[in-house]
Design a protein that fits this description.
The chain is of the alpha+beta class. The protein is built from 2 helices and 5 strands, in the order βαββαββ.
């Protein structure tokens, strides 16, 4: 099990990035959340099997069509037993 916290920068708000992230996370059976930040970046917390998390990070580094990711800062963190699903936070 691997858990990550990420901050994605670039043109990542107003392009469906949060919903894209949630769809990819659910397809990979990850738990966690995604939300927009006031500075225009997107914050993500996710956990699951190590290979699935690695694949998820690769998706974050590219984003959906219409997004332009200029940076994706990822750090490994402790897992959170409270995560039961993956949600879009507002």
């Amino acid at each position: 099990m691997r858990a990550i916290h990420a901050r994605v920068q670039g043109v990542v708000q107003g392009v469906g990035f949060r919903y894209y992230t949630a769809r990819v996370a659910m397809a990979l059976e990850l738990t966690g959340w995604v939300r927009n930040l006031d500075d225009g970046s997107v914050e993500v917390s996710a956990q699951g099997p190590g290979d699935a998390v690695a694949e998820f990070v690769a998706f974050l580094e590219v984003g959906p069509a219409g997004a332009s990711v200029t940076g994706c800062l990822v750090e490994d963190v402790a897992t959170d037993p409270d995560y039961q699903n993956f949600e879009v936070r507002f």
